[in-house]
Known about the structure:
The structure holds 2 protein chains of 2 kinds. Chain A is elongated, with a radius of gyration of 35 Å. Chain A starts with a helix and ends with a helix. Chain A has 4 domains: 1-53 and 245-410, no CATH class; 58-237, no CATH class; 412-500 and 683-824, no CATH class; 505-682, no CATH class. Chain A contains 23 helices and 22 strands. In chain A, helix 1 packs across helix 9 (296-333) and helix 12 (413-446) packs across helix 14. Chain A is an alpha+beta fold. Chain B is an alpha/beta fold. Chain B has a single domain (21-206), classed as P-loop containing nucleotide triphosphate hydrolases (Rossmann fold), CATH 3.40.50.300. In chain B, the strands form 2 sheets. A 6-stranded mixed sheet of chain B has the order 4-5-6-1-7-8. In chain B, helix 3 packs across helix 4 (104-114), helix 3 (88-98) runs parallel beside helix 5 (130-143) and helix 4 crosses helix 5 (130-143). The two termini of chain B are 33 Å apart. At the A-B interface, helix 1, helix 8 and helix 9 of A face helix 1, helix 2 and helix 3 of B.
Amino acid sequence: MSMTATRMLARDWRGGELGVLVMALVLAVGVVSGISAFTTKLQNALVQESHRFLAADTVVSSGRPLPEEWLQQADRDGLQRAVTLSFPSMVYAGDDNMYLASIKAVSETYPLRGELTYGVEPFGETFPASVGPAQGEVWLDSRLFSLLDVTLQDQITIGEHSFLVVAVARTEPDQGASFYGLGPRVLMHYDDIPATGVVQPGSRVEYRQLYAGPEATVRSFSLWLQPLLKDGQKALSVEEGQPSISSALARAESFLLLAGSLAVVLAGVAVALAARRFSERHHDYVAIIKSLGATSGAVNRLYGTSLLLLGLIATALGCGLGFTIQAVFFELFAEQLPVQPGSSGIRPYAIGAATSITCLFCFAWPPLRRLGQASPLRVLRRDLPLEGSRAISDYVLGLLAIALLMWWYSGDWKLTLAVLAGLAVTAGLGLGLALTLLKGGRLVGMSAGNIWRLALAGLQRRGLENALQVVIFSMAIMMLLVLLLVRTSLIDEWQTQLPADAPNHFMLNIGPESVQPIEDLLSDEGITSEAFYPMIRGRIMSVNGEELISTEDVEEQRRQRETNLTWSNGLPKDNRLVAGQWWPSGTDQAVVSLEESFAERLDIKVGDSVGFLVGSQPLEAQVTSIRALDWQSMRPNFYLVFPPKLLASYPSTFMTSFHLEAADKAFLNRFIRSFPTVTVVEMDAVIEQVRGIINQVSAAINLVLVVILAAGGLVLVAGVQASVDARMHESAILRALGAPRRLILGSLLIEFATLGLFAGLLAAAAAELSVYILQTLVMDMRYTPTLWIWPLGIVSGALVVGSLGVFNCRKVVSVAPVTVLREL
Amino acid sequence: MAGTELEILKGITLEIKSGESVAIIGASGSGKSTLLGLLAGLDEASGGSVTINGTDLGTLDEDGRARFRGEHIGFVFQSFQLLPALTALENVMLPLELQGQSEVTQKAEHYLKRVELDARMGHYPLQLSGGEQQRVALARAFASRPAILFADEPTGNLDSRTGDRIIDLVFELNREEGTTLVLVTHDSALADRCDRRLRLDGGALVKE
């Protein structure tokens, strides 16, 4: 029987019977495994990226020296290791110049992950360094050159030891995303610390041990280390990546998973349609072999084997496609990704294979299984109807499979729910509406000309079938519209988030007296800055009179926190009130506005009373509003905002951000010389990296859209083909009766285009609903209705379905009617 | 109409002896195909019984009847009913394979030679003429050495010369294999070549 199955498949393939079925399966497996491999590798890359931000795979930090034995254990395990020590210290140059710098002493092996860069002139070009400073040498932050008035090859002193300045310290992988309160950096060799004599018991220092190696070894080492950690010794997590990049990538991943889920649904529908047509076309075939003595079991074995073979071939091809898709994606990313993503492993392809099995079992097998029940009497009477060719259980099984696949694949029930809701609306309302619309179409057609009457009568005659077809077409169009909408708003949002002139430098520690001169200087240089925000360090001490715990060692959400406070008369730019009211300008009441996540962490609500310690003075204020803000906007953002009158008496510094082109960076040197105490933080490299990755993610998303469009196209083709036989039959009879080519093609075009038009209309409505649910519940984006999808859905539906229909039926006017009738 | 029972065949009592050839004739709609379907076990009767070689077909389910057909019955149809995916040889091998017989290739080749198609064994049905396709169907019908052969208008789709050649072959093979032949036809001349003629009219057997 398996030989017969192979022969049958080969023949059906040559006859074009299996085209849509195989392509739908290949596409489903390809998209699912491709996207899954891509996201797996992307996550790998993100983990490695976060390792870069630690400069190691795992790090232990403490304010006191860490045990030497741990390093020895790491050596025994074959791990790489490094040590660092950070502390603030005065740095002296010549007789008069000194400045409080942030010293970091590193061993030769530092960094274990990521890259250390240096420069040969302040704020100048950066170069990768293979090792840090040698003993007796230091690298200085760009700012320190003007602050200390030194150049390369000058001497500086830290504690009791002198060092030669040999390079500009530019970036360290683990310098941290938070830059508040950081002094300018000095990099030195770890072994020089004793000679300086500055580190004494009780000094404010941070010791770090860094480890890296093969994943499994690092994991077992971390497990060994975990129970040995005492109070004050902390293992650092790898989740502290780049928030902007990981947020963009997380959204992109959501989008890709959505796209993948939709691809599975589309492919499932295409497989179901193609399998039904395949089964209808094989009815006679089965009748013959049953008349020759095949039992229903034998027929089931025959088709089961065929399906299995088909599944194997399609899975293999699909995995190949998936591999290609992820390879193309990474080709796009190659330049932007700072790390090699490694291999995705076998899992994505196993997911692809499971998708293929599910599609075959839940969508293709039900109609084929019924072939076993076909009556052999069809060999005598071809007009016998096909029994139960559209059992309700098929739809239930199919829907269940779709839901489970989507849920399993995306791991996100909200996303699954959003798409299913859209599908349910399309299917339920759509069927009723389609029947009504088709009826209405018939009334219009009665008073219309020949072609229209013929076409609309055709629509009316197969009312229920056509309504089902409209539902299927509209599902496909809906999913494409959903994807298009989400993609457009995603990319738009990214672009507005990081416009070309987004601030890329921050200025901190601006004294009140320097605000006006700096404003003037910036404006003279033609540089536009954001507003100057006052900044006061403050500590949150109590909520509603209840003291918060002060320890920092325990992972307690509700504890005392030190943060930056600011004041403002109006709601800061890009902030959005989510609760309460903004205070009237010029108020002298003791009130405060909190950032959403900050309020959540401390469980503070509007109306609560919060106690602060600013400097050494206590301050009590009532919460009058909660704000949401965009942390990726690269503008000064604050957790806590007070009315100006409340903080006016406290000493404060100011901060701002501004955009500076790469060509204008020399300005920074002039600026630092004029305002030596101001801290300038360069974020331009990070922003460029974010922008580059976002561009690549956008390209990947567009590519996925094309693949999904192909899946949608397949559903449309399968949907059209499902009804082509009946239409071909009628048209061939009309042709035999002498109907001209124009009449036949015209009426077919009108018939299919009308179906497409109704489908487009329904799809636009369902797409709006799905996008609303998706954007508000799943992707955390703001929903705005889109008018353009209505004409797009309707026109493209009519055009695409109309032309596909005519294309698939074209044979009826080019081949003799008797040939068409014989082949059906 | 829904709910109204339609009686297609009425009070038919009929016995066909082993080795006999019987022609069933009648106008379109007289119930010929329905009778053939019942006699061959392709359909279930709503009343009465069909017994072949002592087996009451009414006691078998569809799978039982399928096995019975495979072992005892051969068919030749007006529209040939060859499987387009299989070559002439594979079409003839199919019923033998379904029965799990051995040496199926040799047996199938033997019958294809017998119908003078040894040169076209590897051809697909669509590459064969109507007459050739019907000869393949004949080879397929006889290859499983059925006790009884049902032929439904076997020349209906053929021109008269080719049709005559096919009918000659049917009777030759029938004699050689000692098969019982039940032939449904419009063609009076063809019916005359059978041992017995039965005329159906309005679902009932009438005397001629």
